[in-house]
Every structure is written in C-alpha cells, then in structure tokens.
Amino acid sequence: MKWIHLWVCVLLVSACTQSKASTVSPTEARPTIQPPTVAATEAVSTPAQSPATSTPAPTEPATTDSRSPFSLDVEPIASGFERPVYLTHAGDDRLFVVEQEGRMWVIDAERGVVLETPFLDIVPLVHSRAYERGLLSVAFHPDYASNGMFFVNYTRNPDGATVIARYLVSGDPNLADPGSGTVLLTIDQPEANHNGGQLQFGPDGYLYVGMGDGGGAGDRHGTIGNGQDLDALLGKMLRIDVDGGETYTIPPSNPYVGRTDARPEIWAFGIRNPWRFSFDRATGDLYTADVGQGQYEEVNFQPASSSGGENYGWRIMEGSHCYDPREGCDQTGLTPPIAEYGREGGCSVTGGYVYRGSLYPWLDGVYFFADYCSGNVWSLERDASGQWNMTGQTRVNFNVSSFGEDEAGEVYLVGHDDGTIYRLTSTSP
Predict the structure, then answer these.
(1) Does the CA dihedral 409-414-420-423 come out positive or negative?
(2) What structural domains and CATH numbers belong to the chain?
(3) CA dist 375 to 346, 399, 424, Å?
(4) How far is it, in rounded angstroms, from Cα 294 to Cα 127?
(5) Alpha-carbon distance 314 to 412, whole Å?
(6) pLDDT-based confidence at 37, cuts 50/70/90?
(7) What's the CA gap between 269 and 284, in Å, rounded?
(8) pLDDT in tens, 282-308
(9) d(CA 235, CA 214)
(10) Out of 48, 92, 263, 365, which residue is the most buried by the measure of CB atoms under 10 Å away?
(11) HSE of 232 in the Cβ direction (CA atoms, 13 Å)?
C-alpha cells in the first residue's frame, strides 16, 4: 500500500500568510495505520491572557489550584490523507476523517486499518479550489445507530455557497448512500474565505452550525457588517432542528423566534470565523474559537445554562480590543472572550475539546486548542476563583487544521499539511 505525502500550507484563514511549495506523490490506495512513534514537539510560551470575565462558572468548574503538573505530546495513528480538516466518531470505535476535496474515510480502530473505500465521496459537488472552501465537517445524528443519518457542511461547486446536507448510511455500515443527499440549507457566500464550516450536535439534540462573516477584511459586507446584522445568517452560530420536516425547523427556544428583524435560526452572533467549536460532553458548555482579523485570536465561552443571544462583538471588537472604531467602541451588551493571543502566538486559532477521556485522568476538564500557523498548543481552564488560565503546553511541527474526539473522549489533532492524524498523549509526574 502506498503512502501519500502532501506538503501544503493551504491556509484556513486569510490572516495566515505563511506558505511553502507543495508536492503530491501519486497514490493508488489509502495509507495504513501509523506505528506508535511520537511526533516532534517543543515547549511553547503563553501569550498574555485576556481579562477575567463575569461569565457563570461551568456546571463542574475546573480548578487549576489543585491540578498536578502534566506534559503533552502527540503520537501519529494514521497518515496519507489529503488535506484532512476534521475527525469525529459515530458512536462506536471507528474514526471518520474528512478531506477538504470532498471525501470521508473510516479508520477502523478495532482492526487497526484505514478502510480502502471512502465512506462518502461527493467531490463533484464540492468547490475546494480555494484555501477555505471544501467539505469542511460532518456531524452524526445522536440516534445514528438507529436512523443512519449524518450531516455535512460543504461549499458548493461552482459558486462556493455553503450547503448543509443530510445523508444516510447504506446497507454496508462502512459506506454511505451517495444518492441519499438532501440539501437542508444553502447560504450564499460573497467571498471565498471565512466560511466557518463546523457542524456539531448539542446536548439538546439540535444541530449547531458555525458561519463566518462572508469573507473579506473587516466584515465589509453591509452597512454594519454581517456579524452584527441579525437579518443575515453569516457571522453567526445557528441552531436548527433537523428532526422536524423534510429540511429543518426552528427550535422554539431560539432567542429571536417571533422577531421580524432577525433570522430565527440565529443562536449567537458577532462572530468572524468560527472555524472550530465544541461542546464539553460532561457539562454541555460551548467553546468557540473565533479566527481574528489581523491582531488577535480568541476563544469564546457559552455556559450550558445559556438561553442564547450572546453577542461576541465582531466587528465592534477583535478579541477584547476595539476594532470599529479603533478607540472608544461601545461594549455594552457584548460577551468578551475567555482567552486571546496576539501575533506572537500565531495567526489562526483552531478550536479543540475539553478532555473527558480515561487514559489521562489528570487532564479531565481541561480545554485544549492550537494555532494553525505556529503549531502552538495551549490548555485553558478556570480556577476556583473564576479566573480563566491559558497555559502554553507544547508546539507541534504540523499545521493543526482541527481537533477531534472519539467515542471514549480521547482527543486527536489533524495535520492539514502532512495528512496525518495524531492522538493527544500526556504524562504526569
């Protein structure tokens, strides 16, 4: 079986300007599972933290005061993927890897192999000829074991519009039915970047959709920008019910239901490019990493008790700093980030997960995230006083396009440039 070696810096945000030449070796088959060798990492410093906020504590707040020191590393488990952008599970021990061009592959962890045939191949439908376009994520229905439904987010060929579509598994559990696709939602994209792309089912059973602001510098579309325009779906976190009707219905508890000046799909707004977000499987809290404009990357937090409607500030704010106007901006009603970093830390934040696995119990409750450009990996948790603490843990030698989580709660990193899936590892003195 041949290996694919793909060296590209196909950036997921326009803020990242690093590049290198790319070459692709021909291949006839998918690669095998990697031997358990450890990828090179190095220590990373911690940028200045954002101010403490008054956000309510999580259901089970992390307490850094009593946590023992630990170290992080990563180990490769499978390689040879072409521009992988996401990894998830379907409620069993398989892992599903999403490639930007429009394919999904199955890693059968029990047998230790990458299956030869893609689970789904919709390459003809997908526009992936731009840095931030492509098949961007997948979310399996909470009742996937009984209904076989899963949902994908991709940019449409040829115009790049965002499409949310539902598919069904075939009679073979390792193959989707490519003819079962039903488009649920289409959102026009004015430019090629800032597409968001994440899909995730929340603990409430609704499907959450992260939408970027439509691209271009400074959220330039519309008089106030898409992020602050409640009549636009761009620059938002959407929440829809995919169990009611042929396409979707609106959850009655969405914050703008019944208003004529706002789209009822909106759950939260003031977002620039929420490339990756996740729910803490233990508490239901929502962490959203929002890619910054030119100076600051940020992580936002929404407690499980929220009724929605948070305004995370873009384009009034970039991180915890005024953007429009540059000074004296009105921050009334805005929800500041729980962490941020500047260009000393990198150029494009990649959101991760709160660790809830069993292999490294000392990591329980810690949120991990990274920077695509620099490879810096940080931990984030709140101490007993309510202060969020961001700590530099390591630096990996690949572009982290995404994190992933398996059914058991173990955390993975996706190498966009080297086509490799890594599992997060840790030691504790």
Answers:
(1) negative
(2) 41-427 (2.120.10.30)
(3) 8, 6, 14
(4) 26
(5) 29
(6) very low
(7) 19
(8) 999 999 999 999 999 999 999 999 999
(9) 7
(10) 365
(11) 23
